[in-house]
Structure formats: C-alpha cells, structure tokens
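in:
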C-alpha cells in the first residue's frame, strides 16, 4: 500500500469529535404530566450539564467512522498492489562506438554510464525505468516502463558499437515518453557544443576523457583467382606513436594447408592516414589487428573471403562480323567478365531486332552524323562518354527512352525493362575506334553487374547503407546480429545503415542464402577521441520528478465505500427513530 498524497490522512482527525459526540449526553429532569397530549407543550430544561454515558447506537457510529476512513483514503490517494504509486525514469545512453573507449583507469565509458544509471535510479527512487539508446535509428534497450532490475540488467548486456550520429531525435522521443514535468537522463562521452539547443527536461551527463588513438579507418579485400588483395588505411589521432605494427593473419584457404601471418610497420602522421596494400595466396578469412589502445574495437577487423562474381557475357547469333569483332576486342580486355555464360548471370548482346539485353546495329536507311550530339546528363550509362570528333551512322530509331540523339535520330535508347539499344552502323562509323566505345560498353557491363541479385558491396564500414538488388516476385530476408527482418521492394533497394557491425546475410524465400556482406566496426569520426570530455549540464526545466497522479488516476473504491457507509447510516438512524 502507498499514498500519493499522505496529507489526506489528516482527515482521520474527524474521528475524535465524532466518537466524543456519541459518548456525550445531556441529562434531563423527568417531567410528570397527566395526559399524553400535554407532553408537547412543556419546554423542559436540563438541570444538569452534559455527562459521559455509554451510548446505545454502536452501528451508526461504526458506519460514520467507516465513512470518515473512506474519505481519508480517497483524499490520500491510496494505492494497493499493482496500482501502487509508480515513479517513471527515462534513461538515454549514447550508442556510438566511442562509448567503448577506455579511460586511464581501464574502465570503459559505457561501464561508467551503467554505474551512473544505477545510482540515478536509486537516488530517484524510480519504480519504472525506460532505457533508450541513441543511434542512426533510435531503439529501446529496456521498457517502456520496465522494472528497475530488468532495465539495469538489459543495460548491462547493451553494447555501444554504432556509427557517429545526432542524438537529438532520441532525446525528443525520450521527452515524450517521460511526460510533462519529468526529467530525462542522458549519458554520453562528449560535452554539448556551444549553441546546441538541448530539450529542457534533459540532464546531459558526459563521462568521456580526451585520449590519443590509432585506428583502422578503412579495410577492403578483393579476391581474384587465388590472390587476395587487402587494402588498409591507418590513421593517428593525436600526438601518439609515429609508427605502428599492423599484424595480418590469414587463415588457410581450401587449397592451403596452413595460414600466413605477416607484420608490417606503417609510418603515421598526426593529420592524415597511411595506406597499406598486401596480397595473400589461397587465403581464407584474414584477421587484421593493431596494438590495443584507448579504443581497441577500431583496431581489429576480420575480412571474409570476397570472391568477385564475373559477369557472364554471351554474343547472340546473327550478329555482323564488324559488330562481333568490336565486341570481342572489348570483352577480351575487360576484367571480371566471363564468356558464354560460364559462371554468374548472363548478359546477352545481340543484333537489332532480337530480345537481347543489349542490341548493337542499325536497320533501315542509314544516316551519318558528326555532331552535335545531345546526351542525357547524369545517366550512368553515359558516364565519361565523350563523343567529340565521332562519326556516327544510325538507322531507324529504336524503341525506348532516348539517351543520345543527333537531330531527330536516336543513337542510344533504354526501355523500361532495362534493355539498351545502340543504333550504330559500324561499317560507316568510327565510334569503335575512339575512347567513347570502350567507355560506353564498360558502363553497360557495370550497370548489368549492379543489377545482379545480392549486395552491391560486400564490405562496408559503420554508417554506410546496405545497397542490394532483389528479383521481382521473390521474398527476401536480411539476417544479421540484430535478428532477421523482411526486405521490401524489387530491383535496387537501399536499406538504412545497420545498427551494429557484423555479418549480414540476404536470404531468398527464407531458405536460400543469396549473398552476404560484412559491416566493420570502423568509423573515423568515432575513432577521434580528442574531443571527448566530462560535463554535467542540468536540465533547464525546474519541474520535479515527484510521483504524481491525475484526478482520473485515483482509486475509486474508497468513494464507493463512503457512499455505502452513508446510506447504511441513514437506514440505521431512520429505523432507530
């Protein structure tokens, strides 16, 4: 049992005069009359003062006392069991990677935040706690309005490994959850910058310490054949060591009996970064590590095997000899291209009038143009395509949306389903002998590669969105460290940046693993610990976090008890009279 307004219990003081009134009686002198009708006329006077006597109406006294008690309980806002008065406290923890940095005593900022949060819950006497974590997408760690022990236990298992972000959306959300007049506790490792507008109920507590740090800010791996090429970028933030030893350990691949371990020394500058590129033969996963410092997490990365998926290109029958020779020369010099559908998806190139993905050729009467040529700006197929000095012969206009035109002639077009038409007669053109030809075909191959099912990039850092391609009519699920969630949309899909690093797998129809991507715990802005500091900025709102209740939240049963007691007392008194 608890009371929202204990001063309401002062109403019980009314029991004293009530009981006294029942014990106090006035003694009257007997009056003798000769007839009953004469009783109404005399006006008897008391010859003696009031005296204490035993009363005979106990039921009425008990009912009236019960009514007083019921009124006192209602005014005191009595609460029983689950309806006992609660006090809600909202805690917000910074979810960025820098919260995992260690101070001079070896304790992480996140651990300090856990201790401070437990102390704040105890000092405030909170009975319900909500814990939120900031991030690119705010999330609930515990609650809403969980028991303090469960909320603090959830905070113990929380890991801060997010990218750099703005905490204001989470603070505004916390303000709404807390309600009017309630404060919000925010724990981070950086003091608010001058001029930052903080919500008035938020108490900003910074627990960070400025530290020097050496970090990996980028790590990429490319597998081609049996060779794995690893490219690393290492940066120094602050006056730290001028050189650092980078350790790379390659696990044995399927065709190797043992792994390889290498240590490379990299010279560092206080501003800027150093690039390191190494190759390994028949390597499995490669582990990269730097000596542990203030933030060990940004000095470790695991690069999984990332083989290139060659795009299979096939030339359809019926193509002219000039067109075939020009395409063969380009495909022979193009990397990541497999011929005749040997592996991967197939890009079919054929003559005009076929159902090939890319058509090359002209039909009907040909016309030759030397300019001016008009191109659709910003289209990826026309990146770096320069047509100055080109002689282009074209036939009848192909279907689709024009991309390159000369007068009323359409030289390059694209249909809604992605089919590309090159309206060119190579026997009367010189476009195949200038740089525009391989650049244009390279763009066509690149866009076809991007349209393949799976992830566009397989290795990303924190804060980068997941870009992938899905097929129409299929169901996809993204499985990662935070669980699984469905993927909606067909074609090119861009998902929000992952909340945590790790391996993400794209599954089709809940069974087939289509592709995977690795999100590394690397973020240059989070690795720079020079701006971390300690501060305690109190809330601007002067409202108190005391437990209060609205009138509609009061228990109704004391009023019912009061009404029943009054009705019972009226019935008992009426019968006695």
């Amino acid at each position: 049992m608890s009371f929202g307004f204990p001063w309401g219990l002062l109403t019980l003081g009314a029991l004293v005069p009530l009981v006294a009134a029942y014990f106090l009686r006035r003694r009257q002198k007997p009056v003798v009359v000769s007839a009953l009708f004469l009783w109404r006329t005399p006006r008897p006077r008391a010859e003696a003062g009031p005296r204490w006597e035993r009363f005979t109406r106990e039921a009425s006294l008990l009912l009236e006392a019960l009514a007083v008690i019921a009124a006192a309980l209602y005014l005191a806002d009595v609460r029983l069991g689950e309806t006992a008065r609660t006090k809600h406290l909202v805690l917000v923890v910074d979810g960025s990677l820098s919260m995992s940095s260690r101070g001079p005593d070896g304790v992480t900022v996140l651990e300090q935040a856990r201790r401070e949060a437990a102390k704040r819950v105890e000092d405030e006497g909170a009975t319900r706690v909500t814990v939120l974590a900031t991030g690119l997408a705010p999330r609930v760690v515990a609650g809403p309005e969980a028991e303090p022990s469960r909320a603090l236990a959830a905070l113990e298992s929380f890991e801060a490994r997010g990218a750099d972000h703005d905490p204001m959306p989470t603070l505004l959300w916390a303000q709404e959850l807390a309600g009017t007049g309630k404060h919000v506790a925010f724990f981070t490792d950086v003091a608010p910058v001058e001029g930052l507008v903080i919500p008035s109920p938020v108490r900003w507590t910074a627990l960070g310490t400025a530290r020097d740090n050496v970090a990996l800010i980028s790590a990429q791996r490319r597998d081609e054949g049996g060779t794995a090429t690893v490219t690393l970028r290492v940066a120094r933030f602050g006056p730290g060591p001028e050189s650092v030893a980078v350790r790379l350990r390659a696990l044995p691949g399927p065709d190797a009996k043992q792994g390889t371990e290498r240590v490379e020394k990299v010279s560092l500058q206080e501003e800027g970064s150093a690039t390191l590129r190494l190759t390994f033969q028949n390597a499995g996963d490669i582990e990269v590590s730097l000596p542990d410092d203030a933030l060990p997490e940004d000095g470790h990365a695991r690069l999984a095997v990332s083989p290139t998926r060659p795009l299979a290109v096939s030339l359809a029958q019926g193509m002219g000899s000039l067109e075939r020779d020009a395409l063969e020369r380009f495909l022979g010099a193009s990397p990541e291209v497999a011929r005749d559908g040997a592996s991967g998806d197939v890009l079919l190139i054929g003559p005009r009038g076929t159902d090939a993905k890319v058509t090359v050729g002209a039909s009907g009467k040909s016309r030759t143009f030397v300019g001016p040529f008009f191109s659709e700006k910003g289209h990826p197929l026309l990146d770096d395509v320069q047509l100055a000095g080109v002689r282009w012969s074209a036939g009848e206009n192909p279907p689709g949306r024009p991309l390159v035109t000369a007068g009323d002639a359409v030289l390059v077009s694209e249909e809604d389903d992605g089919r590309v038409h090159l309206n060119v007669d190579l026997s009367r053109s010189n476009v195949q002998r200038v740089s525009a030809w391989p650049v244009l075909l390279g763009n066509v191959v690149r866009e076809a590669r991007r349209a393949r099912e799976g992830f566009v990039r397989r290795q990303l850092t924190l804060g980068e969105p997941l870009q992938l391609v899905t097929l129409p009519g299929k169901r996809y699920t993204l499985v990662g460290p935070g669980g699984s969630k469905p993927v909606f949309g067909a074609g090119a899909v861009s998902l929000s940046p992952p909340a945590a690093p790790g391996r993400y797998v794209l599954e089709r129809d809940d069974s087939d693993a289509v592709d995977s991507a690795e999100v590394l715990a690397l973020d240059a802005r989070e690795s720079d610990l020079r701006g971390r500091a300690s501060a305690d900025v109190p809330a601007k709102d002067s409202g108190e976090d005391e437990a209060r209740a609205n009138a509609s939240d009061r228990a109704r049963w004391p009023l019912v008890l009061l009404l029943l007691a009054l009705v019972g007392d009226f019935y008992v008194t009426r019968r006695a009279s």
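note: The longest strand covers residues 213-224.
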